[in-house]
Every structure is written in structure tokens, then in C-alpha cells.
Amino acid sequence: MDEILTLGEIKSRFVAEWLLVLDPQTDEALEVRSGKVRFHSKDRDEVYRKAVELRPASFAVLYTGLIPKDAAVVL
């Protein structure tokens, strides 16, 4: 996909999926605001494998679903 999508468009098209976003545009807090969705999957590991395969210069990995309350998030 070469189309640049806003974060809102990304979330509406790819519900509860992991995304590999190329050339992400970010705000001052480095939160993704738009970019090109290159790959998507329900399986997070598939997205990371695709990132390793493609070796993009600039990318972000996003999850568009809800994170369970009992899950730990490490940044």
C-alpha cells in the first residue's frame, strides 16, 4: 500500500490488528499521526518478521485493538 493514511483511517480499516507502518509522520511526543501501512496481521510476530525481512529505514509497529487490563506494556 502506497497510500498515506491518517491514524483515524488506519484504525477504522484495520481493527484489532498489528500493523507495520512505513514512513510514519509523528507529533512532538513521537506518537504516530499518519503513514503507509505496509503489512498487517492478527499475529504480532508476523509483523515483526516482515519488518526484519523488509528492513525499512523508518517504520512504526502499531496495535489497533484494546490492550487487556491484566497485560503489562513495556516501552
Radius of gyration, CA atoms, in whole angstroms: 12 Å
Average of per-residue pLDDT values: 94
Strand order in the sheet with the most strands: 1-3-2-4
Count of DSSP H/I helices: 2
Number of strands: 4
Fraction in helix: 10-25%
How would you explain this protein's 3D organization?
With 75 residues, the protein is an alpha+beta fold. The protein has one domain (4-63). The chain contains two helices and four strands; from the N terminus they run βαββαβ. It has helices at 7-13, 44-54, and strands at residues 4-6, 18-26, 32-41, 59-63. The chain has a four-stranded antiparallel sheet with strand order 1-3-2-4. A hairpin with a 5-residue loop joins β2 (18-26) and β3. The longest helix has 11 residues, at 44-54.
SSE blueprint:
Layout: E1 4-6, H1 7-13, E2 18-26, E3 32-41, H2 44-54, E4 59-63
Antiparallel strand pairs: 1-3, 2-3, 2-4
